[in-house]
């Protein structure tokens, strides 16, 4: 498997709010570096209520958050004492378990992120964010919701050098 496929999947899943609310919210709006199931579920429900989304069920959000976490963090098979099958997005190293049901985003260098995938994501973000602009600020690329910096959890300096 090539890491480019997983990085491109990450961009498609977490880079567009129309695709997956949980993934988009977690990578683009959740400010906390660490989180647990409950905190993430609560923040998504608050977001939905603020936008008056009437067709959102707490149980659905809870399941979505569980699916989100399982996409990045392999489960340990306690009976076998070994790691279960690793989810595709786990290889990206974007989220790691800290303790119990507490998780942490891993911001910083992403050596396996191919330049071509970053360029694709930057172009897509630019076309969505400022299609008529001749330039984009480093801050926008690194920190704006839906930006490569947010979706890939890059450090500001890596957004410049990628």
TrEMBL record:
Pfam families: DUF4007 (PF13182). Residues 1-158 form the DUF4007 domain. This is DUF4007 domain-containing protein. It comes from mine drainage metagenome.
